[in-house]
Write a structure and sequence with these properties.
single chain; 152 residues; mainly beta; 11% helix; signal
Length: 152
Amino acid sequence: MSLFTVIFVSFILLFSLSNGFSNRTRLPRQTKVIGTCYNFLGIVKCADGSAILPTANIKLWESDFPWDDLLHTESLEHSTSDSRLAKFAWKGCYNDGSFLGVPFINIEIYYQFKDVCHPGDSYIAKEVEIKRHQKMNLYILHDQKADLQHLD
């Protein structure tokens, strides 16, 4: 058996086995960006009007094969004027590594908000807004989703 055949069969096996991993988050769409440095910022609000829990955090994930990579975890900073709002902000530099010395250009990222509105809850934001258009990013959490809106 040739080396190519062994590598090809190994790749197929790895791919088929990885589809059974329970930690693999399958999203129909993530935000595709060039792997470099960005400012990640936004405001978070529960759609049902709940106060933001003190344990609330945000995770930045990269959708990757065979499992997603956790890139960053940040606690949400509670608003001093409204207990129903929290914010996040950090600067991060991320990439998807390389294959045979050739770097991957794009990464596909998404947010996961955890323990925000109710203990043990989780919300996925497929849209990660990194471009500033003179607006603030507002993520409204409901039904295990985080919908992005822009505030003027």
